[in-house]
Design goal:
The complex is a heterodimer of chains A (455) and B (316). By secondary structure, chain A is of the alpha/beta class. Chain A has 16 helices and 14 strands. In chain A, the strands form 3 sheets. An 8-stranded mixed β-sheet of chain A has the order 2-9-8-7-6-3-4-5, with helices on both faces. A 4-stranded antiparallel β-sheet of chain A has the order 10-11-14-13, with helices on one face. In chain A, helix 8 runs parallel beside helix 9. The longest helix of chain A has 26 residues.
Chain lengths: 455, 316
């Protein structure tokens, strides 16, 4: 029980006021929706909850002495500059660090093509702001990064999702979608993809599909927004070339971030775009926040100057690999035979799919009773699909907590499976990929829960 | 007065409760009370024992706060509290019990069947589903028996959808109701003391008919208060609400949710601690009756302390 510190709140609005404000909202705000899930997610923050819901990297192993030394150096040597505004595109020194990071994956961007952004999230927002008019088609994976959905929706894009399998986005399905749109006289502005260790599915786009995706973009003169936050976090297998490298940067806008290889707290990301597109992105950034945190950029500069960034990533890779393996083992052990899940070669997430009659938003309520949380799959779809899937994060907790969390989820899943079998008098068959046709749950009208109870 | 505002807690409705609580705190402060905000947790009893407030304003929603648990603790500590007493809270929270009580005195409520999961897991209740479906017809509504909000409420349009709807509802509670679906206008009557406030009607915007999320987002559901209802029907609605309030033993305040269909009003449920956020229905109804939020809070506090005095003066 905590006592709220004394503070003043403004006089409250009445219901009548709210109606009045509602008339003032822009069309794009009206389509922004809160959700029941958001209220449930608030509860996952309770300390006793084992949360596999977050997307947090582990920042606990970053050496505090090193952090302190770098910040001290900045204070002693560059105090005035570090506290000042900076250029909208970002400092040249920051871009040098970015070139180094991209070089580690075989890319050779021109620093002139780079803009430093406030986290990778702002890069997604700025690209959307630059390219999307209301009603424009935007193509992304199904499932897609849950944080991208509200961005596309806020610019009133017509979001079209392309199914993924274990080799990433179904590029054949993409092709037929592009053809269909072309026949309708509609041109998608861009294809948003997380090709490596996708969030949330954990799958990686195969080399063949990468090549074909880049070709398709050229043929249809459509941009690709390649979001690659996890590329350097590979735990097994051979690295694959980023789309940016395959394409040479003509049709690929590359989105990067320091969040997963250094710190999400410094809010530092970037975009690499063809010069005419970059110019507009810079104008958009100017309007949004003038420049990215100067202090954060100084920190990155100091950190890279130490030259230990590669070994730090190697240490993260060791940690995350062990945690991924712990989660995979626990899933094998505690999830019922009817469940399937992906086996990521890197990144932070595993995507598990349950029998179609289990709605994971409802399951989350039951799981919270066991003090464990995950992200319900619907968050990764714009059309209410994904209801029987969940995203599980393995980077932010230690292996023993991961095992316990998965055990608890497995327990509530097993209870629901047994209940369903009792209700239908039949053991449910072997798990299959969820498809709308065979899903009883799909026939139940979706999203029946209200955002928040009313007492 | 020293007013403890109980909010938050562990229920799924924690978020709403924090908003209700914050609003009550502000109002109580403006009324000149000394406010003690309490986000309820394992130290609730010790905090209340040391703070010794004159009255506790319960702004908790859902199991734990609305089901008689906190009310019982406050009884033991001899601290007056707002809203219905222990027994009324128990009856309101348990939709099955509430519906039995309503039906016993002929307050109309949609026909229903209720089961706990033991009935399905151990007693073969699944074999009775066909008869149940025959009796209730389609579409039918499946809901957890004791979830305060609409979390877990499902419509099943046909037989094949019932098992998944049950699995969803059982995620929130070990007892569920299957209820006949009544088509009609969605109404809420808040009762303050023993007086019904003006009727609120929730009118979902086009396409949001079955989307409960829409009820809680600005702009997606239109609330009309007072509802445009002919006087004769309005009387029937308020009468049904008052009877439901009284048969369940409510005092202080509560909100009665009804459907006005072709067969007249049908009571769906009674909320012992209705939402008090800026989009909630009770404050809207009070506003329509000319009561500001401060006046509403003052009246609710007054009812709480008065009930306590009345109880204390009882012999024995």
């Amino acid at each position: 029980m905590t006592e709220t510190p004394p503070h003043r709140r403004r006089a409250h609005t009445t219901a009548h006021d709210l109606e009045r404000y509602a008339d003032l909202f822009a069309e794009r705000t009206k389509v922004m929706r809160s959700s029941a899930m958001r209220d449930l997610m608030a509860i996952t923050a309770r300390p006793e909850v084992i949360s596999l819901a977050g997307g947090l990297p582990d920042t606990s192993t970053f050496p505090p002495q090193s952090f302190a030394a770098q910040m001290t150096r900045i204070a002693q040597e560059s105090s005035a500059q570090a506290l000042q505004y900076g250029p909208t595109e970002g400092f040249e020194e920051t871009k040098d660090c970015i070139v180094e990071v991209m070089g580690a994956e075989g890319m050779l961007p021109d620093p002139e093509d780079i803009i430093v952004t406030t986290g990778g999230q702002q890069a997604i927002d700025l690209v959307s702001k630059t390219l999307i008019d209301p009603g424009d088609p935007v193509i992304c994976e199904a499932p897609t990064y849950p944080g991208a959905v509200p961005v596309f929706c806020s610019y009133q894009a017509d979001v079209i999702q392309i199914e993924c399998d274990s080799d990433g986005m179904r590029v054949d399905e993409l092709e037929s979608t592009l053809d269909r749109l072309a026949a309708e006289g509609r041109r998608p502005k861009f294809i948003y993809s997380v090709p490596s260790f996708q969030n949330p599915a954990g799958v990686t786009l195969s080399f063949e599909r990468r090549r074909r995706l880049v070709e398709l973009a050229r043929e249809h003169e459509v941009l690709i927004a390649e979001d690659n936050p996890y590329g350097l976090l590979r735990y097994e297998g051979e690295p694959l070339p980023p789309l940016y490298q395959l394409d040479g940067g003509d049709y690929v806008i590359y989105l990067g971030t320091f969040s997963k290889i250094l710190s999400p707290g410094i809010r530092l990301g970037w975009a690499v775009a063809p010069p005419p597109v970059l110019e507009k992105i810079v104008l958009g950034k100017q309007a949004a926040d003038l420049c990215t945190s100067t202090l954060s950029q100084y920190f990155v500069r100091e950190y890279f100057a130490e030259g230990r960034w590669r070994s730090y990533i190697s240490s993260l890779v060791e940690i995350y690999r062990e945690r991924r393996d712990a989660m995979l083992e626990a899933l094998e052990r505690h999830f019922p035979a009817q469940a399937t899940w992906t086996r990521p070669e890197g990144g932070l997430f595993i995507w598990a799919t349950l029998p179609p009659y289990i709605d994971t938003s409802d399951l989350l309520a039951k799981a919270l009773g066991e003090n464990v949380a995950f992200v319900p799959g619907q968050a990764a779809y714009v059309d209410g699909n994904g209801a029987s899937s969940m995203r599980l994060n393995f980077s932010s907790l230690e292996s023993n907590e991961i095992r316990e969390g998965v055990r608890r989820i497995g327990k509530v899943v097993a209870e629901q499976v047994a209940l369903y079998e009792t209700l239908t008098h039949e053991p449910s068959g072997p798990a299959t990929e969820r498809s709308p046709e065979d899903s009883a749950a799909d026939n139940v009208l979706p999203l029946r829960k209200r955002a928040s109870g009313d007492g | 007065m020293r007013v403890a505002v109980l909010k938050g807690g562990r229920s799924l409705e924690r978020g709403v409760s924090l908003r209700s609580g914050a609003r009550v705190e502000d109002a109580a402060e403006r009324l000149g009370h000394e406010v003690i905000p309490l986000d309820v947790g394992s130290d609730l009893v010790s905090r209340l024992s040391s703070e010794r407030p004159d009255v506790a304003f319960i702004a908790l929603h859902g199991p734990g706060g609305e089901d008689g648990t906190v009310q019982e603790l406050l009884e033991i500590l001899d601290i007056p509290y707002t809203g219905p007493g222990v027994a009324a809270c128990v009856r309101c929270m348990d939709k099955m019990l509430a519906k039995h009580e309503l039906r016993a005195v002929d307050v109309p409520t949609p026909d229903w069947v209720a089961f706990n999961d033991t009935a399905f897991r151990e007693l073969g209740a699944a074999d009775a589903l066909e008869q149940i479906e025959g009796r209730l017809g389609f579409p039918l509504v499946v809901k957890p028996a004791s979830q305060g909000s609409s979390l877990g409420v499902r419509f099943a349009a046909e037989r094949s959808q019932v098992p998944a709807a049950l699995v969803s509802a059982f995620s929130y509670d070990d007892r569920v109701l299957l209820e006949r679906y009544v088509d009609g206008r969605e109404l809420a009557v808040s009762v303050l003391g023993s007086d019904p406030l003006p009727i609120v009607e929730a009118i979902p915007r086009q396409g949001d008919r079955f989307d409960f999320e829409a009820r809680y987002e600005i702009g997606r559901t239109q609330y009309v208060c007072p509802a445009q209802i002919d006087p004769a029907s309005a009387d029937l609605v308020q009468d049904a609400a008052l009877r439901a309030y009284s048969v369940l033993g409510c005092s202080g305040f509560a909100r009665v949710d009804l459907i006005l269909g072709s067969e007249g009003p049908q009571v769906l449920e009674v909320n012992a601690v209705p939402g008090l956020t800026d989009t909630s229905l009770l404050p809207q109804a009070a506003e329509a009756a000319g009561l500001s939020f401060e006046q509403l809070v003052e009246r609710v506090l007054d009812l709480a302390t008065r009930r306590s005095r009345d109880t204390a003066s009882l012999p024995g």
